Amino acid sequence: MAWEAVIGLEVHAQLATRSKLFCSCPTTFGAPPNSQTCAVCLGLPGVLPVLNRQAILLAVRAATALGCRLEPHSEFARKNYFYPDLPKGYQISQYDQPYARGGAILVDDGATARSVELIRIHIEEDAGKTIHGEGHDGRRSRVDFNRGGVPLIEIVTAPVLRSGAEAAATMRALRQLLRYLEVCDGNLEQGSLRCDANVSLRPAGATTLGTRAELKNLNSFRFVEQAVDFEIERQTQILDRGDVVVQQTRHYDPGTRQTRAMRTKEEAHDYRYFPEPDLPPLELPPALLTDVAATLPELPPARRRRYALAYDLPADAAALLTEEPETARWFEEALAVHANPKALANWMLNELGGLTRGQPLAELRVTPRRLAELIALIDAGTISGPIAKQLLVQMLADGADPARLVAEQGLAQVNDDAAVTALVDEVLAANPDSVRAIAAGKEKAFGFLVGQVMRRSGGKANPKLVNRLLRERLDRAGTAPAGGR
Ligand code: ADP
Ligand code: MG
Ligand code: ZN
Question: How far is the CA of 41 from the centre of ligand 3 (A)?
Answer without folding.
Answer: 4
